């Protein structure tokens, strides 16, 4: 009852209130029956509206007393009659940690701003100062984890080659899109043609190249020597990609020489004599698909297994051909079918392993002047068909190698599942 009369006197500011007058700051509602607090006692309404004012005043007084910026409200629900029970026990440690104050005898060690020690020596946060963001231990992923991409794609061991966040800007810096430190790159069929050009070009970007060959050891050693003369690292490994045991041995040699394999270029392929489909034997069909399609499958599967196990990510580039969409009628339908299988595998595999940080793409060369036309019995085929190309000429192996190395680099960090034509518009 005394609290009720004291509140009435304070709310009226010393003036005697009219009987029945609402002492709340808010005006009386037009329809009291619909007001949510119309049926509550007048003292409760005054207490409800006065609570925020008292909380604000208390905070301002305490803030000025302890040298802190005012305006912050204390814990919700602070009431005048609870000030002694709720505020005073916290003021003692605040005074000990306030600006210009001295810590109490129970405090041990310096107290950081916004914190103080109570009588038990335990740290407590200040009531008037919002706590700073808590210092949390940043989760650090081990080197090589897919969640630890760093800044260089396959540039360093322990990197994810699957790409960068939105802040990555390709083409910036003196070595943008290039690898700084080497990782192992396997180039199948790397002793001549597009494979040899790719091996030499990738070595200039820091890749440590494993040149795979089937039978021409002298040509493979010449490529390795050319890479060594230019300051790169390379070895030659013999193997038939159509045999699973040879593929496993190839990857073992690569890891023994250069560590985890970060890239694979599935370039090995064969082309038989030009002939219509009716004249192609089943043995020839099986051999072409075994080398071109199954060989690419075996190498890609082993690369994915090892890249996933090492959690390093990587890049796979498969070599297709414009024969796949054009069909190569009356010439190389078996070759076209094998390259069509490679393209389908590229798209499907890219969707399977993208979350593991592995990018899979394919390059589709057009009319390229290499030795493969001689294997088909048409050594002048590239020059004879140059007029059918919109650019008016046949391409070179070095031009295809540039596209392959670009797909291996960070400049293509957001490219996966793509079939890149290098055909001069044909």
From TrEMBL:
Q: For bias kind Basic and acidic residues, which ranges apply?
A: 32-43
Q: Which residues form the Ketoreductase domain?
A: 183-361
- Comp. bias (Low complexity): 104-113
Source organism's superkingdom?
A: Bacteria
Q: Which terms are listed as keywords in the entry?
A: Oxidoreductase
Task: Output compositional bias ranges, type Basic residues.
Answer: 1-18, 77-93, 134-145
Instruction: Extract the InterPro entries matched here.
Output: KR_dom, NAD(P)-bd_dom_sf, SDR_fam
Please list where the region (Disordered) is annotated.
Answer: 1-184
The UniProt GO MF terms for this protein read: oxidoreductase activity, acting on CH-OH group of donors
Task: Fetch the Pfam families from UniProt.
Answer: adh_short_C2
- Can you tell me which family this protein belongs to? Belongs to the short-chain dehydrogenases/reductases (SDR) family.
Alphabetical list of PANTHER family matching this protein: NADPH-DEPENDENT ALDEHYDE REDUCTASE-LIKE PROTEIN, CHLOROPLASTIC-RELATED, RE15974P
Q: What is this protein called?
A: SDR family oxidoreductase
- Recite the lineage of the species: Bacteria, Pseudomonadati, Pseudomonadota, Alphaproteobacteria, Rhodobacterales
């Amino acid at each position: 009852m005394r609290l009720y009369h004291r509140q009435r006197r304070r709310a009226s500011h010393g003036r005697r209130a009219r009987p029945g007058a609402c002492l709340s700051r808010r005006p009386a509602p037009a329809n009291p029956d619909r007001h949510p607090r119309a049926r509550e006692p007048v003292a409760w309404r005054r207490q409800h509206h006065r609570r925020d004012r008292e909380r604000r005043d208390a905070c301002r007084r305490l803030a000025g007393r302890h040298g802190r910026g005012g305006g912050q409200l204390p814990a919700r629900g602070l009431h005048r009659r609870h000030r002694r029970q709720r505020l005073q026990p916290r003021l003692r440690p605040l005074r000990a940690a306030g600006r210009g104050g001295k810590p109490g005898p129970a405090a041990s060690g310096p107290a950081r701003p916004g914190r103080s020690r109570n009588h038990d020596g335990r740290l407590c946060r200040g009531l008037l100062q919002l706590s700073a963001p808590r210092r949390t231990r940043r989760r650090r992923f081990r080197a090589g984890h897919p969640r630890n991409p760093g800044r260089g794609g396959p540039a360093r061991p322990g990197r994810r080659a699957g790409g960068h966040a939105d802040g990555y800007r390709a083409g910036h810096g003196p070595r943008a899109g290039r690898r700084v430190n080497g990782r192992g790159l396997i180039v199948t069929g790397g002793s001549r043609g597009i494979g040899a050009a790719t091996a030499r070009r990738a070595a200039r970007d820091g890749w440590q190249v494993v040149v795979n060959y089937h039978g021409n050891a002298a040509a493979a050693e010449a490529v390795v020597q050319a890479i060594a003369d230019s300051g790169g690292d390379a070895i030659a490994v013999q193997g038939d990609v159509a045999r699973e045991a040879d593929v496993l041995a190839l990857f073992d040699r690569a890891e023994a020489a250069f560590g985890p394999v970060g890239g694979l270029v599935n370039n090995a392929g064969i082309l038989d004599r030009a002939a219509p489909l009716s004249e192609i034997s089943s043995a020839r069909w099986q051999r072409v698909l075994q080398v071109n399609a199954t060989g690419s499958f075996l190498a890609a599967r082993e690369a994915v297994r090892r890249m996933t196990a090492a959690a390093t990510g990587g890049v796979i580039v498969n070599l297709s051909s414009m024969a796949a969409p054009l069909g190569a009628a009356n010439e190389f339908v078996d070759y076209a079918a094998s390259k069509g299988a490679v393209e389908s595998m590229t798209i499907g595999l890219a969707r399977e392993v993208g979350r593991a940080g592995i990018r899979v793409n394919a390059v589709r060369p057009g009319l390229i002047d290499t030795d493969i036309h001689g294997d088909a019995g048409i050594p002048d085929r590239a020059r004879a068909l140059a007029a059918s190309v919109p650019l008016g000429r046949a391409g070179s192996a070095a031009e295809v190698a540039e596209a392959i190395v670009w797909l291996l680099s960070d400049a293509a960090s957001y490219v996966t599942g793509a079939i890149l034509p290098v055909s001069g518009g044909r």
